[in-house]
Amino acid sequence: SPHRPTPALPALIAHRGYAARAPENTLAAIDAAHAAGCRWVELDVQRLGDGMPVIWHDADVSRCSDGHARLRELDWAAAQGLDVGRWFDARFAGERMASLDDALARLAGHGMGLNLELKLSPGHDATALAAVAGRALAALPPERLLISSFDDTLLAQVRRDHPEAVLGWLAEALPDGWLARCRSLDAFSINLDWQRLTRDDAAAVKAAGLHLLCYTANDPEAFAPCWEWGVDAVISDDPARFGVRPA
Ligand code: G3P
Ligand code: MG
């Protein structure tokens, strides 16, 4: 396999920026994670109708903005007309949807790392989304970027285009054929739903030499056994609950 960095992955990664403290997937959330002492965040990226890559989780904007539209029906100018902060708290009124490039610049400025989830919503173009990975690879140092997706076909494209990329395959629970697929992707990690993780699955992942990440855990006591099973990192809405402290 080509020369590839080992990510400087911390044990705690802040989910959707810092979803417990700021509107998810915004620059304000990245700033909240930085202020809280988080070294890495997870963010979702998708493409607007005009192809602009933006940081957004849902297929539409209803839950997290003052508008109602499918993401693929919006262009960048229309998306910038949305308030994406007030729904969370009046303190965040005026927050605007972040482009991927905005988010990458903010993370680079903070010296932070990123788990970028390529989020393929129904009706979106998988090939075009996979191509977005190149922007992240160009913007962040290789040891501070993990690219993940639930869509393994999309990840295979990222692997073909970027031999140097560090990849994590997302799944709810270990899928049939997971090991062969991780090998063919030359994956760094498998990223699983912690609530479906079993001791045996964790042992198998670790025995295969893969890193094991879990999403989305917010209760440190309930999660405690997973550390014993060898989980390397947890993606949490609220890393402070797990002991992350400001520097
Ligand atoms: O990447 C982990 C986690 O973000 C996957 O689920 O729906 O929160 O994007 P979701
Ligand atoms: Mg995500």
From TrEMBL:
SUPFAM superfamilies: PLC-like phosphodiesterases. This is Glycerophosphoryl diester phosphodiesterase. Residues 10-246 form the GP-PDE domain. It comes from Modicisalibacter tunisiensis. Gene3D superfamilies: Phosphatidylinositol (PI) phosphodiesterase.
